[in-house]
Amino acid sequence: MSVAKDLETPENVIFPPGDLYSQEPPLESDLHRQQMMLLIQCIEWLWQNRNDFYASGNLTVYYSSRQPKSEDFKGPDFFVVLGSYRAARKSWVVWQEDGKYPNVIVELLSDLTAATDKNLKKQIYQDIFRTPDYFWFDPNNLEFAGFILVGGEYQPLQPNPLGWLWSKQLGLYLGVHEEKLRFFTSEGQLVTTPQEEAQSERQQKELAQQKVERLAAKLRELNIDPDSI
């Protein structure tokens, strides 16, 4: 029996209450946790003026009345739902979110989860969620792959010359940069975190100050008081 058929929800099902807590276990390592938080921070910072999406990670996506009784499925390590809204949630309960499923999912591979991420979860995301963009990334060996839903089936995304993969849903590239999975704009600019942007601004100010000091020193060599200009 196919995954889609096995997990199909009966028409007369009575859904359980929507106030369901996430049942996700801790991520496998600090690398996995840091990678998840990096993706969340970047997308929320880039879209800080938008309120039409929800981004989270390691959070259970409840989509079936039978799911809470099953150990076969755990929530995505990172996902984005478009056409939603930003708010704190205990979990993502599809039947309380206008039937919306994630538009983009990233799974972080590990020795324990790689087989599930590449097979069972991929099948669920294709057949049940119908998530348009699915990626996986291994923070340890940097394995990276992506898929786009075409005609109901996932087709591998083709990398650009830099090895990045395009997410049509996000309008961004995903690619490995300094051993981390990062977002890039269509122009190739790295999507930064708030901390990285603040650091960049400090560095720019320091460079500008250094230029001013060098110019002032040069003027003094010419017996010109820079404060008199």
Structure, described:
The protein has helices at residues 3-6, 30-46, 114-118, 120-129, 194-221; strands at residues 53-56, 61-62, 78-82, 92-93, 104-108, 133-137, 144-150, 153-156, 165-167, 172-177, 180-184. With 229 residues, the protein is α+β, with helices and mostly antiparallel strands. The longest helix is centred in the C-terminal third of the chain and has 28 residues, at 194-221. The radius of gyration is 23 Å and the shape is elongated. The termini are far apart. The model is unreliable at 1-7 and 12-16 (pLDDT under 50).
Features of this protein?
disordered N terminus, single chain, elongated
Give the strand order of the largest sheet, numbering strands 1, 2, ... along the chain: 1-3-5-6-7-8
Number of strands: 11
Residue share in β-strands: 15-25%
Mean pLDDT score:
84
**Low-pLDDT segments, ≥5 res:** 1-7, 12-16
Oligomer: single chain
Total of helices: 5
Q: What is the general shape?
A: elongated
State the end-to-end CA separation: 83 Å
Write the SSE topology.
Blueprint: H1 3-6, H2 30-46, E1 53-56, E2 61-62, E3 78-82, E4 92-93, E5 104-108, H3 114-118, H4 120-129, E6 133-137, E7 144-150, E8 153-156, E9 165-167, E10 172-177, E11 180-184, H5 194-221
In short:
The chain is an alpha+beta fold.
